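mind reviewing both lines:
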Amino acid sequence: MRGGWEVGAAAGGSLLLCAALLAVGCALGLRLGRGLGAADRGALAWLCFDALVHFALEGPFVYLSLVGNITDSDALIASLWKEYGKADARWLYLDPTIVSLEILTVVLGGFLALVLIYAIVKEKHYRHFIQITLCVCELYGGWMTFCPDWLMGSPNLNTNNWLYFWVYLVFFNGVWVLIPGLLLWQSWVELKKMHHKGFNSGKKFQ
């Protein structure tokens, strides 16, 4: 894999912005989760970060893509997407699949993240229904982002540079596979516990 280990100013700025959003998301999540268990506090930290990414980063991407394209934009946020576009060229122009998925992600994914935050904090009965729905949406978005390009031989993906491949493509996209997967597992375990509890309670009254 070619490419030096130097990180340019554009890459550094983009990574710093992502780190700042992560810090804000974690701070909000941990504050909202005071008094809850560690798993729920961790989930809230992730969901706050997730919502911030959907609304603050992907929302502007959708807007800029619909009114023109990222390459020709002088907007400050466009510089982040131009940097990511070095790893996946489809983000630089109006790629119908990418923009369609991002519209779904911003509108549905962002809204579901906010609803799930509320459901966890207020301990609502619909928490795991929303959690499963959101996680499936996130995993579907990841699959449909890459599968069409893989089927064509990945012509738009730059895998020759360590930063673009391992950080931009593998790490940043892998996080949106790993954590939704863990949250799905959490929902599975909790629903199983509820089922056994309800079943055992029902047997007592027979």
Remarks:
- The two ends are 66 Å apart (CA to CA).
- The mean pLDDT is 92.
- The longest helix spans residues 162-204.
- Residues 9-204 form one domain.
